[in-house]
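=== How it folds ===
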Amino acid sequence: MEARFSSLLTNDFACFFISAGLLVCYHLFLRQKLKTDSGYTIQAVNAEARRAWVEGVMNKEGYEILAVQTLRNAIMGSTFLGTTAVFLMIGSLTLTGQGGNLEHTWHALNFLGAVKAELWLGKILLLLVDFLIAFMCFAQAIRLNIHVGYMINVPKNDPRRLAPKFVASQLNRAGRYHWMGMRAFYFAAPLVFWIFGPLYMVGASVVAVVILYRLDRAPAM
């Protein structure tokens, strides 16, 4: 019995590392492509667009309201997603006390993985950490967007006015945090499927990589 459990536990961890490897290799691939093509991903295109937008807003008069409205929309989006992450954390915590009740249903199609309560709690813990990372990233995006709202509207003749390049770098930092929060949501899908079985996690990781590639690839200009 113990030998069988060890074998099943090995299957779980092997599939976990395969899934993690797929996601890591995909992002390394994107990083390598950006070295030769700075506009390969939509994130890189958006970063350049944010830099141009900041320079346009700060170098022309009458764009203050546009800047505030645009940043407000970004803050509202990150606020909604951060709140969603909190609700998902609460749901994950609720599942920790339901392992015994859900074991037969959730593991009905688990052919190769272990079904011990300790492993169940470990899976839920990873899911909880993933949503916590998402929440923290969205919170940082909100914080930086609020700071940019003050920086971008300093009058042009004020000697304390910051350079547009610096303001754009802070706005792009907010954009990267928002991207990381969304990426944590995408990474949650394989973790959820892991609860049903390790093979489903690998399958979900493959599907996630395909979907992420379609989302990340910048369209032809």
About this structure: The radius of gyration is 22 Å. Helices lie at 2-36, 42-59, 64-96, 99-106, 117-151, 164-196, 198-216. The chain has one domain: 13-216.
